[in-house]
Amino acid sequence: MQPYEERLTAPRLWWFIALLVGVALALVALPFGTLPMLCGLVGGVALSGAAVSSYGSVRVRVVAGSLVVADARIPVSALGRATVLDPAEAVAWRTYKADPRAFMLLRSYVPTALRVEVVDPDDPTPYLYVSTRSPERLAAALAAARSCEAPDPGVQERIPDQGT
Question: Choosing a second label site near 74 at 20 to 30 A (CA), which of 54, 58, 122, 149?
């Protein structure tokens, strides 16, 4: 099985906007002198850059029999059918078709997504919505992880004696 890993990085334009936030803060602080202006520039760029970096650092991985999305780890045995969503369907599933109980990793700058049903009866989550740039590869990685985890039908499970 080939592992799957994707980082949903923020678009380059967002980094330019972070720079513009710093410039705006520098212009606000300009009447107070050169040092406050430089502090506004550095502080604005640093804070807005940290926000862009934090939002764009989320990872989607399939490792060790689990789908890891941001901080959530879901075993593939609890997952059902995966549906690849094109851009139009992705918009529909994150708006009017969305279930409020669903786990959703939304990134508006990623046009496609994968919808994965949750088959664990103890989990109230009906499905996972995961923004991904390559939903076909993620679905294939989940299918491969599920097939690696399936028990061999030729091996019977031994039930220990209960000692009656």
Answer: 54
